[in-house]
């Protein structure tokens, strides 16, 4: 390692220009699920540029504007570089030893005094993009042996995991669209051209979607807003928020009544098919048309075309999950794929074969996932995979003070959880909060000890989570672009040291700390690669710094992996049937068109709540605007740019409106992750572009009740001139 702390070996791309130390390193962008390969140009410790890596076989040079902002993140003066301890409202820098001791002592004390459940943990979305947190944070959460484990999953994909567990026998058995070979891509509640795809890693997804149409295929987007993806599609089906499950049930009615059921490869491997047939019998498209806003002949045509297509994939994501019937919608999406013969077939929904196959390894260990082993205390919400829904975190802090201490890792629930302002108030009452996070933000301002990890460019990268949901089988390992300073710590080091301090007696601690330091994430990757399905090792991946392509998804793999006791898909789990019959279908006939419903949206230059401190991402027109239909705006005397008060049972915010017919009448849309005007945060640029938090309006009581997932979409709201 040279004195400036630069690496110039590994990728073979290094170069010394004159006396300056310049290197170009390959790595993967860790910001979203697209896993784009990037080239980072570093000179004298400064990131000169970040650009797409043309030699990455998967992303082939594509990047979105967020990639260049990695340089801003690395050099951001607001990024916290040394551990901090808070006394009242004052922060002071301390040594790592002091900070870690203080953090661990407080947690240990809380456990001793009030029991294990008094220590809660919340971990957020960046964990999935961070190798060291994947290998270290999840075991740490386990080791706490508390029932109060929370994560962003219950604000996101939990319904899809519950469906996988119930139908296929493992919470990780989530099929992905075979995007590059499908001829009919039917999308529910996702906007991949902006989000760059989720549970579907596919860099340059816009090109891949356009290619479907170029080869004569069809793309249909079901969404209450005419999104960027809808604009790139053949057809936009505008749906009333929260009614996807009804539309899907009506599509199934058509498939069954027209005798189009075809289980394909899954013939003989499905139980309870009659129950589905019986369920949808009374639900022709006409019956749900008023509630869903989708004309009966549109529903019928969609169902027939999808069933008759040779290669078709029905895919749903966040808009489908985070709504009142998120689990039912996620379930019926899979049922539609299954009964039309599009599951486990080329061009349909398929299972990836990742080089590190976490699901296979867990399956072999008998770890398939759990549901409802216990309930939360205050609201009796079900456990899932050892976690409780984040929508009830505030209850568990407030109700009799069950939770006294909290660890947050890479999460910002004050902005990302429903009724964030209530959670904000609850966090302020905690006795001891430890946050592992590079920023002092809306959540971490409540920390008593803030432990900041080193920049992402200083860590080794392998996408343990995302390669399992990739539309091609790929693998890539990257060395750190820039060496971390001796004064810095990686996430995994912080977690490891915290764990050693908490769980190992003082006498043995030096030994434990030494052991923790040798348990490097990349060593684990090497071990897992060796037991994986390809002849790969870390050394081999090091020889291919741009990544390796391991081929297209393989049909038949899904069937081979069904993990239920009888190795058959349970197409109609009892609790799903009951929820559909007793609640969803009862609503089918109700006329709710008078309601004004709030939905969310993502934006290309934003990444949930935490990339707003990059000047180049937030410059330009205001991002945090409320989209409202011209009719609804006129009824409230609102014109473009006017400030409106958006309110619900949970709270109100002030936001400028953007009048557009891209949203349905009766629907308004606000992006999430904004609201950076709270006291005590250290985000100078984000503060100038504060916006308002949608989650001050969404309600912690509005849930997908089967799974406990936050139903952000479809919140009933009022809008008036401010
Ligand atoms: N209304 C509404 N709410 C939503 C959504 C919505 O669509 N609408 N979407 C939901 C979804 S899908 C998600 S995933 C959640 C996200 O919810 P969260 O994960 O809670 O929130 P993020 O905004 O992703 O915050 C990430 C945090 O991690 C920190 N961080 C970033 N990188 C690292 C790192 O490498 N290490 C560490 N230790 N910290 C890091 C950031 O500073 C930030 O504090 O929000 C949910 N909330
Ligand atoms: N640029 C950018 N990219 C991101 C993120 C980001 O914040 N910014 N976040 C990342 C994360 S954490 C995730 S989970 C993924 C999510 O990726 P996507 O699932 O693609 O997320 P969204 O773009 O929010 O798309 C959700 C869509 O659902 C629609 N919708 C809302 N309610 C309903 C409904 O009731 N029914 C139907 N059918 N549609 C509805 C919304 O209008 C919206 O277009 O994106 C990731 N990528
Ligand atoms: S699409 Fe996602 S992975 Fe690719 S450059 Fe943008 S943020 Fe990074
Ligand atoms: Mo997410």
Written overview of the protein:
This protein is α/β, with parallel strands linked by helices and 722 residues long. Among the domains are: 158-353 and 556-583, Dimethylsulfoxide Reductase, domain 2; 594-721, Barwin-like endoglucanases. Helices cover 32% and strands 19% of the residues. It is built from 26 helices and 32 strands. A seven-stranded mixed sheet has the order 6-5-20-19-18-7-8, covered by helices on one side. A hairpin with a 4-residue loop joins strand 29 (703-704) and strand 30. The longest helix is centred in the first third of the chain and has 19 residues, at 96-114. The radius of gyration is 25 Å and the shape is globular. The chain starts with 14 loop residues before the first strand and ends with a strand. Residues 1-18 have low confidence and may be disordered. Bound molecules: ligand MGD (2 copies), iron/sulfur cluster and molybdenum atom. Residues 29, 31-32, 34-36, 63-64, 66-67, 196, 203 line the site of iron/sulfur cluster.
């Amino acid at each position: 390692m040279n004195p400036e702390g630069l690496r110039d070996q590994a990728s073979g791309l290094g170069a010394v220009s004159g006396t300056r130390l310049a290197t170009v390193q390959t790595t993967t962008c860790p910001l979203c699920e697209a896993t784009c390969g990037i080239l980072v140009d570093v000179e004298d410790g400064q990131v000169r540029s970040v650009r797409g890596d043309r030699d990455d076989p998967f992303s082939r040079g594509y990047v979105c504007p967020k990639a260049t902002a990695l340089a801003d993140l690395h050099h951001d003066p607001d990024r916290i570089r040394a551990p901090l301890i808070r006394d009242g409202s004052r922060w002071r820098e301390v040594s790592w030893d002091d900070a870690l001791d203080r953090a661990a002592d407080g947690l240990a004390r809380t456990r001793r005094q009030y029991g294990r459940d008094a220590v809660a943990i919340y971990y957020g979305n960046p964990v999935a993009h961070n190798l060291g947190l994947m290998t270290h944070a999840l075991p740490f959460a386990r080791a706490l042996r508390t029932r109060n484990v929370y994560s962003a999953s219950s604000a996101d994909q939990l319904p899809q995991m519950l469906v996988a567990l119930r139908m296929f026998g493992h919470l990780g058995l989530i099929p992905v669209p075979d995007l590059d070979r499908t001829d009919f891509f039917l999308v529910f509640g996702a906007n991949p051209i902006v989000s760059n795809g989720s549970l579907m890693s596919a860099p340059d997804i816009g090109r891949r979607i356009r290619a479907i149409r170029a080869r004569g295929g069809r793309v249909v987007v079901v969404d209450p807003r005419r999104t960027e993806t809808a604009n790139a599609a053949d057809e936009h089906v505008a749906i009333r928020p929260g009614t996807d499950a009804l539309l899907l049930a009506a599509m199934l009615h058509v498939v069954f009544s027209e005798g189009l059921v075809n289980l394909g490869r899954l013939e003989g491997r499905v139980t309870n098919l009659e129950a589905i047939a019986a369920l949808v019998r009374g639900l022709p498209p006409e019956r749900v048309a008023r509630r869903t806003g989708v004309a009966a002949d549109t529903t019928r045509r969609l169902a027939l075309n999808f069933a008759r297509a040779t290669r078709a994939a029905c895919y749903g994501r966040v808009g489908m999950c985070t709504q009142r019937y998120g689990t039912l919608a996620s379930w019926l999406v899979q049922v539609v794929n299954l009964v039309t013969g599009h599951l486990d077939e080329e061009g349909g929904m398929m299972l990836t074969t990742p080089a590190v196959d976490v699901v296979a390894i867990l399956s072999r260990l008998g770890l398939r996932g759990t549901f409802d082993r216990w309930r939360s205390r205050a609201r009796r919400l079900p456990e899932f995979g050892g976690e409780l829904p984040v929508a009830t975190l505030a209850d568990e802090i407030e109700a009799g003070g069950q939770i006294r201490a909290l660890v947050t890792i890479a999460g910002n629930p004050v902005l990302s959880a429903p009724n964030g302002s209530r959670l904000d108030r609850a966090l302020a009452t905690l006795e001891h909060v430890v946050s592992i996070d590079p920023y002092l933000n809306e959540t971490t301002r409540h920390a008593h000890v803030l432990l900041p990890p080193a920049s992402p460019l200083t860590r080794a990268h392998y996408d343990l989570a995302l390669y399992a949901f990739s539309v091609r089988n790929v693998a890539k390992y990257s060395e750190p672009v820039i060496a971390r300073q001796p004064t810095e710590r990686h996430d995994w080091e912080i977690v490891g040291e915290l764990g050693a301090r908490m769980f190992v007696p003082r006498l043995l601690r030096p030994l434990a700390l030494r052991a923790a330091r040798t348990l490097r994430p990349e060593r684990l990757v090497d071990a897992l690669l060796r037991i994986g399905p390809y002849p790969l090792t870390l050394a081999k991946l090091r020889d291919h710094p741009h990544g390796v392509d391991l081929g297209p998804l393989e049909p038949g793999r899904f069937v081979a992996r069904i993990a239920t006791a009888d190795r058959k898909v349970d197409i109609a789990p009892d609790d799903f049937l009951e929820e559909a019959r007793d609640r969803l279908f009862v609503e089918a006939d109700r006329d709710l068109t008078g309601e004004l419903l709030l939905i969310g949206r993502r934006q290309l230059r934003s990444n949930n709540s935490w990339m707003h401190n990059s000047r180049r991402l937030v410059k330009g027109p205001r991002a945090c605007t409320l989209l409202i239909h011209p009719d609804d705006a006129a009824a409230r005397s609102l014109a473009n740019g006017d400030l409106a008060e958006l309110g619900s049972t949970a709270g109100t915010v002030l936001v400028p409106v953007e009048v557009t017919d891209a949203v349905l009448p009766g629907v308004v849309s606000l992006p999430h992750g904004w609201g950076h005007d709270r006291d005590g945060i250290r985000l100078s640029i984000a503060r100038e572009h504060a916006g308002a938090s949608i989650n001050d309006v969404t309600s912690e009581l509005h849930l997908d009740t089967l799974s406990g997932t936050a139903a952000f979409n479809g919140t009933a709201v009022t809008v008036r001139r401010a």
